[in-house]
Design brief:
Blueprint lengths: L2 H9 L2 H22 L7 H20 L7 H28 L5 H12 L3 H41 L5 H9 L1 H15 L5 E6 L2 E6 L3 H4 L1 H26 L4 H5 L2 H28 L6 H11 L5 H9 L4 H32 L4
Antiparallel strand pairs: 1-2
Membrane topology: Multi-pass membrane protein
Subcellular location: Membrane
Protein name: AEC family transporter
């Protein structure tokens, strides 16, 4: 099968096309609603809070409500390890990438490059294309993201030492807690007290904390909350885009440099790194694990990183412009990255 045949096959895959179209069209709808003032200035923030405090934790937790699988467990642990290695490498690499910049601008651009919107932008896309397993992998990858964002990111942006408040944000973040709790249940489920369930005339035993089987009354509302994640996140992104000037963003050379680095170079470097680790047997990654990392790295500026910049008055205008331009490019390039990932899959580069 040649490249054109692979691309044609992808273009006719209703699931992939539907996921891409849904994200783009709902983002544009959010943009339209804000321009028409159906959504107000505060709407994006309110919707974002609902996503971050309720929908995403429910989505992360529910993704672990499945039988334990040896290969999936291996991939999860490899992603956890790679997450911490990756952020250390990005800290080093961005020193080289932004060597021509000086002072606050250099540090701000480095932080914005290291930390993308993996939670708010990446996970909804991953869910739409790769389902619950993709969300599970993305949630595990985000453990290292949160740890570095609220430590290294905070220190660099504030110029202060790590404080207790940010340690609390790392430990007690609802998404992190839901991920850790769900992951623990998933890993140790065979060792937990079992409950016998009869489904379709067949009897099976499940851990009592597997609420998808033992407490459907609790799992169902969490499922409804989880389903809100993608559409609400995309509406909020569209609403946010409507508030920023395109003219200012596109006229900045440094924003173009940052955007191309963030949404093209960083994901590409991850593909190379994961391929080398896989073929050498140091850490082996499946195609879905690779896809999870690439989508996470191809996301635009992280909301929290941008908030740090504005709060500590460090290149706030540059940050706003970078956030806008990188979001536009991420929306445009994400479908291309998904096609690239499918081509890689068809070529058999990852298992």
């Amino acid at each position: 099968m040649n490249i054109m045949e692979i691309v044609t096959k992808i273009a006719t895959d209703s699931k992939i096309v539907g996921a891409i179209a849904s994200s783009v069209l709902i983002i544009l709808f959010g943009y339209f609603l804000r321009k028409k003032e159906v959504f107000k200035d505060s709407t994006s923030k309110i919707v974002s809070e609902v996503v971050l405090s309720a929908a995403l934790p429910a989505l992360a937790y529910n993704s672990f409500m499945k039988d334990i699988d040896g290969n999936a467990l291996k991939q999860a642990m490899n992603l956890l390890i790679w997450g911490f290695i990756m952020y250390v490498l990005l800290i080093i690499i961005t020193k080289v990438l932004y060597v021509k910049f000086k002072g606050d601008k250099k540090e701000v651009l480095r932080v914005l490059t290291i930390f993308g919107s993996t939670t708010f932008f990446g996970i909804p896309i991953t869910q739409a294309v790769y389902g619950a397993t993709g969300v599970m992998y993305a949630s595990i990858l985000n453990i290292s993201y949160r740890a570095f964002l609220y430590s290294y990111g905070y220190v660099k942006m504030s110029g202060l030492k790590m404080d207790k408040e940010n340690i609390k944000k790392i430990i007690f973040n609802p998404i992190v807690l839901a991920t850790l709790f769900g992951m623990i249940i998933w890993v140790v489920q065979k060792s937990l007290p079992q409950v016998t369930i009869t489904e379709g005339g067949k009897t099976a035993s499940y851990a009592f904390l597997r609420i998808d089987k033992t407490a459907v009354w609790l799992h169902t509302p969490l499922t409804y909350l989880a389903k809100l994640c993608s559409p609400l996140a995309w509406l909020a992104i569209g609403c946010k885009l409507a508030k920023i000037s395109l003219k200012e963003a596109v006229s900045s050379k440094e924003c173009w440099y940052y955007t191309l680095t963030k949404v093209i170079l960083v994901p590409a470097l991850n593909i190379v790194a994961l391929y080398l680790l896989t073929v050498t047997g140091i850490l082996q990654f499946s195609h879905m694990a690779l896809a999870t990392v690439v989508i996470a790295m191809a996301t635009p500026t992280a909301t929290v990183a941008a908030a740090f910049s504005i709060s500590f008055d460090k290149e706030a205008l540059t940050t706003s412009n970078c956030s806008f331009l990188s979001t536009i490019f991420s929306i445009v390039l994400m479908p291309i990255w998904i096609v690239v990932l499918e081509v890689i899959k068809q070529l058999g580069m990852f298992a």
